Each structure stands twice: as C-alpha cells, then as structure tokens.
Backbone:
C-alpha cells in the first residue's frame, strides 16, 4: 500500500506529471526521496519500478513521453545524455543512467530482500539468467518490434541518432524470441522461480519480457504451460501491478 500525490514539474521547457509513491515497508534504512525518470508504456523503466518496490525504496516518478520525443530534447539530454529511460536521480544529484546502475545502487542501499542473491552460487545463477533474458529475450523482442512498428520509423535503436529499420532483422528477432520462450518454458518445468528458489532480479526481467512481448503478439498459452504457470503465480505480487 502506498500514498500518492500528483504535481506538475517543468524541466527546461517541458512539463511532466510527477507522481510520488511512498511504499510502506519494514526497514532499518532511512531513505531520502529519489526521482525515477520513467515512461509507463516502456519495458525498461518498469524493471526499475519493480526493483525499487521490491526493495521498499520510496521514489517519485517523472514521466518522459517517448512517443512525443521528450527523451530527445535538450532538457532530458541534460539529465541523461543516452536519451533513454529509466534514469534515477539520487538525493545528492547523481544520475544513474540505466538499469544496471540502478540495480547495483538499490542492492547496496537495501540488501534485503537479496534480489541479486545471498551467496556466491545464487549470485552467479541470477547474473547468468538475467543476462540471458536480456540478450536472448528482451533484445530479440525489441529487434522485432523496433524494425517493424511505424512508431519506430528511423528509431530502430535507442539513443540520439536516427537509425533506419531493417525488416530482415525483425524476422530474425521474432525467430530468436520464439526459441527463447520455448527454452524458458522448458527451464521452468520443475521450478517456481527462474534462477533460484526465491524471487530475484531474473524473475523481474523475465516478467517484463513476457509482458512486453505482446508487441510481437506473443502471450504464454497451452504451448508454454510452465511459463504460463510461473507468470500466473506472480499475478498478485504487489510490485508487478502496473
């Protein structure tokens, strides 16, 4: 459960709806409010939102409208020169420009629950599976989507530069994603979680992947029974409800 407030913020010429969300959780750590630069429709910032909620770290969000190109404007470039979301601004002004940095910071600031693992074997398994899900899953879906969607015309890659779509890469991405979903389903045949015996960063990344894959018309069904069971089992987890 959390308290919300809404305010308008202006950053060098563009206005966002900023929503502050305080997550109530038992913790011995005192946090100052941090700011997550977000776009609710995009998969990458969703990974950061889930992570912060799982950690019980309060944060506010500033929406950066990717559809309107706000991430390419001077205002947001001054915050994150990579022109991507998420970015996390800490209370000392430091800006973490990607999920890798946000995850490392959050795990160090709030070790419980240990989403990166609590022993060497867990840490290795979680790192390995998270990497696979990113490379074989998320990048494959993004390759298929960004090289076919009219909304992604000349935006086949993230960043400041315009990059033309290549339809052949879209087909390759679709084939890669299809293979990976089959492999992930088989992996989950006798498992409740992706990497270890508890919820971890690998599950966060996998949930975001599976939900994002709707852009290529993928949804777990009878042909992916273990993947479907796993995703259904997480449906009521509070951190995933958006």
Residues:
């Amino acid at each position: 459960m959390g308290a919300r407030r809404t305010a308008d913020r202006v950053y060098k010429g563009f206005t966002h709806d900023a929503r502050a969300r305080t997550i109530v959780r038992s913790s011995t750590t005192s946090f100052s409010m941090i700011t997550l630069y977000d776009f609710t429709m995009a998969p990458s910032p969703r990974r950061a939102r889930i992570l912060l909620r799982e950690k019980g770290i309060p944060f506010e969000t500033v929406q950066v409208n990717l559809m309107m190109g706000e991430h390419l404007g001077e205002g947001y470039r001054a915050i994150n020169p990579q022109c991507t979301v998420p970015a996390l601004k800490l209370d000392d002004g430091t800006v973490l420009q990607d999920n890798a940095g946000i995850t490392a910071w959050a795990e160090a600031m709030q070790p419980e629950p240990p989403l990166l693992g609590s022993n060497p074997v867990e840490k290795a398994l979680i790192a390995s599976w998270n990497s696979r899900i990113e490379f074989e899953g998320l990048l494959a879906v993004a390759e298929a989507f960004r090289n076919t969607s009219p909304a992604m015309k000349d935006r086949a890659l993230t960043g400041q530069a315009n990059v033309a779509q290549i339809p052949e890469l879209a087909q390759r991405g679709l084939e890669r994603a299809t293979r990976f979903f089959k492999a992930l389903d088989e992996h989950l045949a006798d498992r409740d979680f992706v990497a270890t015996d508890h919820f971890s960063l690998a599950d966060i990344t996998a949930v975001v992947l599976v939900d994002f894959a709707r852009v290529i018309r993928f949804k777990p069904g009878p042909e992916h029974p273990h993947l479907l069971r796993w995703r259904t089992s997480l449906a009521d987890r509070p951190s995933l409800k958006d």
